[in-house]
Design a protein that fits this description.
- Helix content is about 15%, strand content about 35%.
- With about 325 residues, it is mainly beta.
- It has 2 domains: about 100 residues, Sandwich (Immunoglobulin-like), CATH 2.60.40.1550; about 150 residues, Immunoglobulins (Immunoglobulin-like).
- Strands 9, 10, 11, 14, 16 and 19 form a 6-stranded mixed β-sheet that branches. Strands 12, 13, 15, 17 and 18 form a 5-stranded antiparallel β-sheet that branches. Strands 1-7-6-3 form a 4-stranded mixed β-sheet, with no helix packed on it.
- Strand 17 and strand 18 form a beta hairpin.
Length: about 325
C-alpha cells in the first residue's frame, strides 16, 4: 500500500508541475516586458516607414536627395548596394524568390536624413524607380514628418547637417562684409574673403568671386592648405590640405561682368605662428589664378555663429 501511495504522490507532483508549466505557457502577457520600470514607446515617437515592394527578377532603384552613408537590411532575403558612379542611388532586389515574411530597410544620407522602409515581396512591383522627398533642402513642411530629426555626423564635429546648411544659407543671404583685408585681384578677376565664422567644431569661409572682364572664368579647383611662411617651394611634407566638409552655392563658372559667392564649412583648426593658410583658386585652362593668405590672428577673430541670427525653416 505504501508503494501505491508513493507512486500516486509522485504522479500528483508531476501533474502539478506540468499544470504550472502549462499555465505559464498559456498565461496572457500584458506586453510590459520591463515590469513597469520603463515608459512605453508611443506612436508619436515612431518614424513612419515607407512601403516598398521588391522582386527576384527585377531591380528597384531608390533615388535619395543626398549621398548614402549607411544602409541596413532587415534580413538575408534582401540585397542592396549603391549604384556604380552614383552615391545617392540605392538598388534593391530580393535575394530569395518569393520570400514570405515582411522585412525592413533603413538608410541614412549625407544630409542627415533618416529613411525607413517596410519591404514585401511582389512578383511584379508597381514602383521600380522611386525618388525620395528632400526633407532637409526643400524647406517644404508638407514634405517633412512632424517628428523628423536630423542625424548627427561625426565628420562634421557631431553637428547636424541640417543646422550647418541653415548657417551657410544665412551667411550667404546676409551678404555682410566682415573681413576687408584678405583678397586677390588678377586680370579682371577679384577673389575676396568677405566673412569668417565659427560654430562648435566648424569654421565657415564666405568667399566672393567677381569677374569684371568679358571672358568667363571657369574653376579648375579650389584648395585650402596650411604652408610654411618661409618656404617658397611647395612640397607634400611642407603643407597640410584642409578639405571642406560642405559648401553652399558653389559654382564652377562665373560669366563676364558677374559675381558669385560661396560659403564653405571646414573642420575647426588653428595655424602655428610659422605657418599660414593659403586659399588657392585655379582657373581651368587659363592663368587668372587667385591666391589669398589667412593668418592665425584672422581665425581667432572669427565671428561666433551664436551672434548671427539663423532662421529655422
Amino acid at each position: 500500500m505504501k508503494q501505491i501511495f508513493l507512486m500516486l504522490a509522485i504522479l500528483a507532483g508531476v501533474i502539478s508541475v506540468n499544470a504550472q508549466e502549462n499555465v505559464h505557457e498559456t498565461a496572457p502577457t500584458t506586453g510590459d516586458l520591463y515590469e513597469g520600470f520603463t515608459r512605453p514607446m508611443t506612436f508619436n515617437r515612431m518614424i513612419p516607414p515607407y512601403g516598398l515592394e521588391v522582386t527576384f527578377a527585377k531591380t528597384v532603384h531608390i533615388i535619395f536627395p543626398a549621398a548614402i552613408r549607411y544602409v541596413d537590411l532587415g534580413s538575408i532575403d534582401l540585397l542592396a548596394a549603391k549604384a556604380d558612379g552614383a552615391d545617392n542611388v540605392l538598388r534593391v532586389k530580393a535575394a530569395t524568390e518569393r520570400f514570405r515574411k515582411e522585412t525592413n530597410l533603413s538608410v541614412i544620407t549625407e544630409d542627415g536624413s533618416y529613411y525607413t522602409f517596410n519591404v514585401k515581396y511582389a512578383d511584379e512591383p508597381v514602383k521600380l524607380s522611386v525618388e525620395m522627398s528632400d526633407f532637409l533642402h526643400g524647406w517644404n513642411t508638407e514634405n517633412r514628418p512632424g517628428n523628423e530629426l536630423p542625424v548627427y555626423l561625426s565628420d562634421m564635429g557631431g553637428e547636424s547637417p541640417y543646422i550647418v546648411r541653415l548657417i551657410m544659407e544665412t551667411i550667404h543671404g546676409n551678404n555682410r562684409t566682415k573681413v576687408k583685408h584678405i583678397g586677390s585681384k588678377n586680370f579682371g578677376i577679384q577673389c575676396l574673403l568677405k566673412g569668417l565664422y565659427s560654430h562648435n567644431e566648424l569654421l565657415f569661409f564666405h568667399l566672393q568671386l567677381k569677374n569684371t572682364s568679358t571672358v568667363s572664368f571657369s574653376t579648375d579647383y579650389l584648395v585650402f592648405r596650411i604652408v610654411d611662411k618661409k618656404v617658397a617651394k611647395r612640397t607634400a611634407m611642407q603643407e597640410q590640405v584642409i578639405i571642406p566638409l560642405r559648401s553652399y552655392n558653389q559654382v564652377t563658372t562665373v560669366a563676364g561682368g558677374r559675381e558669385e559667392r560661396t560659403v564653405f564649412a571646414l573642420p575647426k583648426f588653428t595655424i602655428p605662428n610659422d605657418k599660414q593658410l593659403v586659399i588657392e583658386l585655379m582657373e581651368k585652362d587659363g592663368g587668372r589664378n587667385q591666391t589669398m593668405t589667412v593668418e592665425n590672428a584672422d581665425l581667432v577673430r572669427a565671428e561666433v555663429i551664436d551672434n548671427l541670427t539663423v532662421k529655422l525653416k
